[in-house]
Sequence to fold (296 residues):
Amino acid sequence: MRRSRTTQAFLLLLAPAQAFAWGEAGHSIVSEIAQHRLTGHAFVTVQKLLKSELDPAPAGPVSLASIASWADDYRSSHTETTNWHFVDIPIDVKGIDPKDVRYDAARDCPPETSSSGTCLIKAVATQLAILSVPADFNNPADVAKHAMALKFIVHLYGDMAQPLHCAEREGDGGGNGLQVFYSGPKQNSVETRTNFHKVWDSLIIGDVQWNWNAYVHDLEQKWLKGKDETKLASGSVIDWVNQCHLKAVEAYGLVSRDLTLGQQQLSQEKAIADEQLATAGVRLSKALNEAFSAYP
Ligand SMILES: [Zn+2]
Fold:
């Protein structure tokens, strides 16, 4: 046993503030899968909005992946958007089986007056409402507002699929306060001490494939092959966050009692990540295609 329960409890007390995202690779993967599925009209509208921010506008296309992590930079100078990146539905609610805990707005989504902003669910609703009303391309301020909403939606659809952005246990801030011993495929059994949130943000993806585009290719050829994408994209944001929470229950359950995450557990965590990244991409494409269908 690597760590006693007492030490584990102590480490949990050190839980820092919630971190903010898949790493850049995760967000790029989600947005690239979405871009593959954009209608021609939606793609043209995306280009108009994204190029409106670049002077001079490039001749070639601008990818969704290139702006997918923008919201994580933005929050550092706009703390009122801090809570937009997650919705921490607790796993440990007294008297309820973790698998049966569902999103509760009063418990999980801070009021609008919080200086750190509300939660992911309300932020998505607000930004999607902006995006769904066609931009006035003769009005630069209106175009800027829509370009910003697009960047938020691309990012937040990724965050809402990261299990540790949909859950926390014992107030650990989505695994930020859960120290684990990680031994990934590139480490030749050498263990690194890190936190569980970081494993999910970057290490599961980064240790398999440095090249995120190759990860996308892999998901397209394997996980997404033959799947009913209409079914994958059905449901509401609240449904998806509840599904994400269930994945978090699974993900936490894979951490062994001695807090190690070896290669066997990591391959199981990666299977969860594959499903979450792929479905988020499909859902994002649907949201963008629907929003831009009303544009001229
Ligand atoms: Zn984020």
